[in-house]
Automatic annotation (TrEMBL):
Origin superkingdom: Bacteria
Residue ranges of every copy of the Glycosyl transferase family domain listed in the record: 208-373
Keyword annotations: Glycosyltransferase, Transferase
GO biological process assignments: carbohydrate derivative biosynthetic process
Chain ranges passing through the membrane: none
Naturally occurring in which organism (per UniProt): Dactylosporangium matsuzakiense
Occurrences of domain Glycosyltransferase subfamily 4-like N-terminal (ranges): 18-202
A molecular function GO annotation: glycosyltransferase activity
Gene3D superfamilies xref list: Glycogen Phosphorylase B (3.40.50.2000)
A Pfam family of this chain: Glyco_transf_4
Tagged with keyword Glycosyltransferase: yes
PANTHER family: SULFOQUINOVOSYL TRANSFERASE SQD2
Name under which the protein is recorded: Glycosyl transferase
Length: 419
């Protein structure tokens, strides 16, 4: 399929150190390099105008390092062949409305577990209320109030809203088998394609020894690396508790947390309580072009989150030859079905034991690293692009049939897995 015009709608800011922004940037770059025409709509960096030519102006959220897009899409030219929605925020909702107004097929990537995140982010409830209003769902005051009540009422209302997204979509991309399985909570589904994101990790000339010196880490010290923000849903408490046990066995070990912009004081306080403050190195978000140096500097990646939908840091680490230990068995399957990752129960003792084994057993370290690199090599950017274009072809072939496709529960359970 040549010369496809795809409009991507994403509420994550360009350059943010989150998985959605990284995945969208990688996807857009790959599509453009293959000769496809891509329009990318996402919030500009707060009040500084527009990043992309079709960027969306945004306003800042008080007390948060984010902005909310204020989309207007009435003048889009040329009209795309496919609308690809990545988020259910104002920009993503604008994409759904634009697609419906112009009779365009919609592909939606389910990047975020909204049900899991709603307990941690108040803006999800506000966003859900905004989405219901913009999509003209006819909710009552009682429906909106349910969003403010934690527990089953909020969950029911978010599922109800998610169902509206599904009913407006021709195909859904789940970035992992875990995410695909979670979508079964919806009553009706369009076909679900399990397509993990393939990330190209740029080489960085910064050497292992040089970076360790900059971080005040000895060349021979065992280094545990964690990548990403340290907000509650990522479970930094589990990471720090596990590392405290590693430190008892390996007193020279160091923990490097890269990408920590928010809650730095909280992380340092938890580190002091866990007795690892002196062994902790907190690093703010770094350009993606420098991440290869951090993976090269470390000895193992610790992935403590159980709310992620795919875990791009694990994919990057494996591509760099760094062993991975994760606390979410549901994400143990690697892209392409090439074996499982080293996973543990989500408790400090289990995770610490696995990290210590990898750090002290050279053979295990080598086996885990080689298996991860082989999996990364097997699931290339070209594989990802091929699967993505297959989804677009399917969506274009079913344009206008969304209602019929989602009317039958049996038909909606179709699933396709990228292999």
């Amino acid at each position: 399929m040549c010369g496809v015009r795809i409009a991507h709608f994403c509420d994550s800011h360009p350059g943010r150190s989150d998985g959605v922004a990284t995945s969208v940037a990688a996807t857009v770059a790959l599509l453009r390099s293959a000769g496809h025409e891509v329009q990318l709509y996402q919030p500009a960096p707060l009040l500084r105008g527009r990043g992309e030519p079709c960027g969306v102006r945004s306003v800042p959220v008080p007390l948060r390092n984010i902005g909310v897009g204020v989309p207007r899409f009435s003048g889009m030219r040329p009209v795309p062949h496919v609308v690809h929605v990545h988020t259910p925020g104002p920009v993503g909702i604008g994409g759904l409305r634009y697609a419906r107004a112009h009779g365009l097929p919609v592909v939606m990537t389910w990047h975020t577990d909204l049900l899991a995140y709603s307990a941690h982010f108040m803006e999800i409830q506000f966003g859900a209320a905004h989405a219901a209003q913009r999509l003209a769902l006819g909710w009552t005051v009682r429906d909106y109030l349910r969003l403010a009540r934690a527990g089953t009422e909020r969950r029911h209302q978010l599922l109800r809203l998610g169902q509206e997204f599904m009913d407006r979509t021709s195909a859904v991309i789940a970035p992992s088998a875990k995410t695909a399985a979670g979508l079964a909570e919806f009553e009706r589904l369009p076909p679900v394609w399990t397509v993990p994101t393939a990330i190209r990790l740029d080489d960085c000339p910064l050497g292992r020894a040089e970076l360790r010196r900059a971080l005040r880490i000895a060349e021979t010290a065992p280094v545990v690396l964690a990548v990403g923000r340290a907000t509650r849903e990522k479970d930094p408490a589990l990471l720090l508790a596990a590392f405290s046990r590693v430190l008892r066995r390996l007193p020279d070990a160091r923990l490097v947390m890269v990408g920590v912009q928010q809650h730095r004081m909280s992380v340092r306080r938890q580190a002091r309580q866990a007795g690892v403050a002196d062994a902790l190195r907190l690093v703010r978000p770094v350009p993606h072009s420098r991440m290869a140096a951090y993976y090269r500097m470390a000895d193992v990646l610790a992935f403590a989150s159980t709310t992620d939908t795919q875990g791009l840091a694990m994919i990057e680490a494996e591509a760099a030859g760094l062993p991975v230990v994760l606390a979410d068995a549901a994400l143990a399957d690697r892209p392409g079905g090439t074996g499982g990752r080293l996973s543990t129960a989500p408790d400090a003792g289990s995770m610490a034991a696995a990290l210590t084994r990898v750090l002290t057993d050279p053979q295990l370290h080598s086996e885990v690293a080689e298996a991860g690199r082989a999996a990364a090599d097997a699931y290339s950017a070209e594989h990802y692009l091929g699967h993505l274009m297959a989804v677009y072809a399917y969506a274009r072939g079913t344009a206008g049939d969304q209602g019929a496709a989602s009317a039958s529960v049996g038909a909606s359970r179709a699933a396709r897995t990228a292999g």
